[in-house]
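Hi everyone,

Forwarding the result from last night's run.
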Amino acid sequence: MERLGRYIRPYVLYILFTMAIKLLGSGLELLIPFFMEKILDDVVPTGEKPMIFAFGGLMLLCAGGCLAANVVANRMSAVSSGKITRKLRYDLFEKLESLSAAQMDRLTVPSAESRLTSDTYNINQLLARVQRLGVRAPILLLGGVFMMLGMDAVLALVLVMLLPLIGVIVYIVTKKSVPLYKEEQTVLDRVVRVLQENITGVRVIKALSKTEYEKSRFNDVNEELTAIDRKAGLITAATNPSTSLVLNLGLTLVVLIGAFRVNAGSTKSGVIITFLTYFVMILNAMLGITRIFVMWSKGEASAHRVADVLELGKDLQPEPEAEPSSEADPPHVEFRHVTFSYTGVGENISDLSFSLRRGESLGILGGTGSGKSTVISLLMRFYDPQQGEILIDGKNVRSYPAAELREKFGAAFQNDFVMEGTIAENIRFFRDIPDDELSRAARDAQAEEFIRNRKEGMDYPVAVRGNNLSGGQKQRLLISRALASDPEILVLDDSSSALDYRTDAELRKALKRNYGRTTTVLIAQRISSIRSCTKILVLSDGKTIGFGTHDELMRSCEEYRLIADSQMGEGKGAV
């Protein structure tokens, strides 16, 4: 928890005040049995009713004050723990948003989700429990022992001797449970991942009749989580009964020894009754302390997981330009001998070089896994290459601040998303873009027709993930979003695959007509979508097997020619 201390420090005085109120309430609670002992041993034998009512009134005042103090303190603890968790959760979300693609790959999305939800919840519960029980339980425990020592030291020592044994039990349980709760959170990440995959791919799962298989896959990871949780639960569950057993044995000894001492006149019967009351307080206090340790086990494991993310170093920071370009008119986009690997084992991109002048277009073609989308990720600096340079306007992308670099791009990715909201909100996407620019972008992306057919027009409500739109409509909406900011570089990563040939052709005409100064990088599976590009790059296993215009590739690249002939008809690819 010390790694998250900076979130607690602003509320230290507030928390101390909360604990002071708890201390007051606990002190008042300890006085109730003391006044009861006075009534039984000192007042009742004298028969003075006014004194009975006086002490009874004091007991009522203590009970009322204790209730009020606990209610106020509990509400204050909920407020402070909620504010701390809110700040922590916000910073964690902000940190996750700032992570590079490589860092997120290592962390994984399911793990990020569970850290942002269940881990922060565990921390919240720990903060609240410590404030509620962290003062009350120890005060009742130590205060109860102190009060008993003042009444009868011999009887009190019976219980005092048992406390070290209880401390050993709590220590062993805590030591064994913390690693289990850490492991449980890791397995929970896998549960989230499997669930996320099932929700995302539910249509494919049903279409291929793999429901039973997915049930079995989820059951396996769910059983693993259950087994770890059961093991951790059995260990922590042993705390309460073992603690109760030790204290109840002590209580039995107190009653037996107390009976002999009463008969011998060494103590009074009221003391024995008061001892029983204090014993109940001590028992509840010990149970409260064990609950704190159980919650501490979960909270500590979660705090380490959250802190591990918050303490991640900043990746892909701007680097000083080693040597300014000496070219008077450098290419707008240039790759120089770029080599990249996601894992460091095998190359996903090998010695890739090409350049584009402003306003030129590059079509990228290749099979699945050939490295097409990786080229886009490197260009936008989601990753850095292990070798080579990527330049925009003659300046290495590593030297651009992230915000400045990303402002140059308008992008529609292969697996992009549509959020719940209106069509206008999806196109604008929280940017300061006038309505007429939204309309222009929708028109150029060939989305104007289907938007106009909606009664609400741009205010048409889009469902989560765009489930009330067809595949082609979603793609046109995403292309509209990419065009709305009038970008310097337009990236379309297989984002027109659901468009019919006529709409695709109209889109390419609009891009050529209205975005003449925009450099376009287009990934497509259709030859018809990229044949008019200034340059075409053909990839296979991350290697360049063809580069040039459509006509040049028809003569020089056999794989390109085979794809063109298969899509456009034998002998028509060269037309």
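DSSP finds 22 helices and twelve strands in the chain.

Cheers,
N.
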